[in-house]
Amino acid sequence: MFDTAVETNMEKICNVSFREENWSQASLPIRRAGLGLRSAADLSLPCFLSSSHACKGLVNCLLPSLNLEIPYGDVNDAIDDWSKHHDSSPVEKGTQAAWDDLACRDTLSSLLNTNNPWNHCRLLAAQESHTAAWSEAFPIASVGNLLSPDELRIAIALRAGAKILESSRCRCGKVVDELGLMASPVLKMQAASQGTQTEPSTPSSRGH
């Protein structure tokens, strides 16, 4: 419920419509190509597992009769749930950041496993620290750091791969898709990945 409310309000505030894969990326940390809009559901398992491992020593001191080396109850269920979605567990099991970072890497790897070359390149580029500098800058108009509502909307949509506009025809005659790209370069990239050829084309320019 909380995650749904965050997504709904983000869409209303920024005027950006997120598909499932867009929101999966947006929920990742900025360093993992996301927007830092963390999901409570995604964080709950790393939080619980790290806490259970971190307090193991103290519980053993207080209740030495318990053998906490063997997972039981809710801890065992949480480990089983983790194993269903991830192939490994972190070395530092008592640190939430270690569990969370591993989960984020797996999510990003899943998003990168796409047949769309544009999405693949976009995700690779979004991992570079400088590509999210706009999201960490103080919005001060006097130094040129204040983005207009439309500039902010486009920046968020470009990073998450979300829809920017309705597909239309540019003045040059080429079709601009909902991502703000000319259709021909996208088709050219897809054809290149499949070993076929298309007619020469040029990248989209909003100056048309």
Describe the structure.
The structure is a single chain. The chain has 208 residues and is an all-alpha fold. It has two domains: 2-126, no CATH class; 165-208, no CATH class. Helices cover 52% and strands 2% of the residues. The protein is built from ten helices and two strands, in the order αααααααααββα. The chain has helices at residues 2-14, 20-26, 40-54, 56-62, 73-85, 96-112, 117-126, 133-136, 149-160, 183-193, and strands at residues 168-169, 175-176. Strand 1 (168-169) and strand 2 form a beta hairpin. Helix 3 crosses helix 5 and helix 3 packs antiparallel against helix 6 (96-112). Mean pLDDT is 85; it is low at 196-203.
Order of helices and strands: HHHHHHHHHEEH
The portion of residues assigned to helices is: 40-55%
| Average pLDDT score | 85
The biggest beta sheet reads: 2 strands, antiparallel
Strands, count: 2
Radius of gyration: 22 Å
Q: Tell me what portion of residues adopts beta-strand conformation.
A: under 5%
In whole angstroms, the N-to-C terminal distance is: 43 Å
Structural class: mainly alpha
Instruction: Assign an overall shape.
Output: elongated
Low-confidence stretches: 196-203
**Count of structural domains:** 2
Order of strands across the main sheet: 1-2
Supply the number of helical segments. 10
Describe the structure concisely for a colleague.
The protein has 208 residues and is mainly alpha-helical. It has helices at residues 2-14, 20-26, 40-54, 56-62, 73-85, 96-112, 117-126, 133-136, 149-160, 183-193, and strands spanning 168-169, 175-176. Strands 1-2 form a two-stranded antiparallel sheet.
